[in-house]
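Q: For a teaching handout, I want to show students what a protein-ligand complex looks like in token form. Below are the inputs, and the small molecule is thiamine diphosphate. Please produce the holo structure.
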Amino acid sequence: MNNENMQAIVERPSDEEQHHPMEDLLRMDRMPHIWCPGCGLGSCLTAFVEGLIKADVNFDKVAVVSGIGCTGRVAGYIKLDSYHTTHGRAIPFATGMKLANRDLTVVVFSGDGDLFAIGGNHLIHAARRNVDINVICVNNFIYGMTGGQNAPTTPLKAYSSTAPYGNYEQPFNLVGVAAASGASYVARWTALHLRRLTDSIAEAANKKGFCFIEIVSPCATVFARRNMGGTGLDLLKEFQKRSIIDHSADPTKIPIDMDGKIICGEFINEDKPTFWENVQSGIKSKVEKEVEWEEMQRKLRQKVTKKSKSME
Ligand SMILES: Cc1ncc(C[n+]2csc(CCOP(=O)(O)OP(=O)(O)O)c2C)c(N)n1
Ligand code: SF4
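A: Here is the structure, written as tokens, with thiamine diphosphate included.
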């Protein structure tokens, strides 16, 4: 190593001089974050920020909503208007915000437990109504924050703190639930598919209707350790081995199990009327019918008056 290189290493910039490439969109005063080493959430947040930049949305008009959990911390780390709501209630909160202020791009960023266990009912009904919000769900197969209890996504036979002999409950296939409930956009990626995930987030940000993106992401601490004696990195390697991209796959037929393939892709990308558009067209046709009815009544009254005058 020559002297110049040596000098460059010795003279590393001080902490004050160092800048995070995404610091404009992150609340740096909240760093260091709470996530464990090897957790996939850092990559998920990076893809989210990059996706919003790529979508070229007006950041003053973006609102991010999270529920409770490790994933839910995203609302606290992103430097945009963001709301850390109660467990399971991110979607109703986001729905209200979007309906009251329809210029906003509203994104829910939360965990599989938050969105599909306690919040499951809200998710299916928001998808059914095609509410114009985006939902990004980080699926780490477990309740991470509270110590690794079974989630509705825990694969059969996987170990969790509430399934010490292996899980015997059939898990939800998240993209299948979103698709069957009527979402306009449905995609699944792993935390390794950063470029494709970023593109999906950008696509959804500019799309009307209920958009759902599942990110399969490693929980290094309470899922990986308990199930494979490995780390978050080992789980990522496993995802790499098992992932297949197939955009034409039927999202209702691609559950994730402990050792099978993880089918990823953009499965649904449709245009259909949103909840608000249906409300507007309902009101419009009702008003038109009333105007028509009043006109008919007016003409009838005119006719009757004319007739009675002619009889006088
Ligand atoms: C009403 C209510 N019930 C239960 C909890 C406890 N709780 C906090 S986070 C969580 C699960 C989080 O799991 P998930 O959404 O998958 O997020 P992760 O931590 O795995 O990212 C639970 C049950 C709570 N905070 N509020
Ligand atoms: S518990 Fe799991 S999901 Fe939560 S921060 Fe740690 S590794 Fe990530």
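A: Two things your students might notice: The CA atoms of residues 184 and 270 lie 5 Å apart. The chain has a mean pLDDT of 93.
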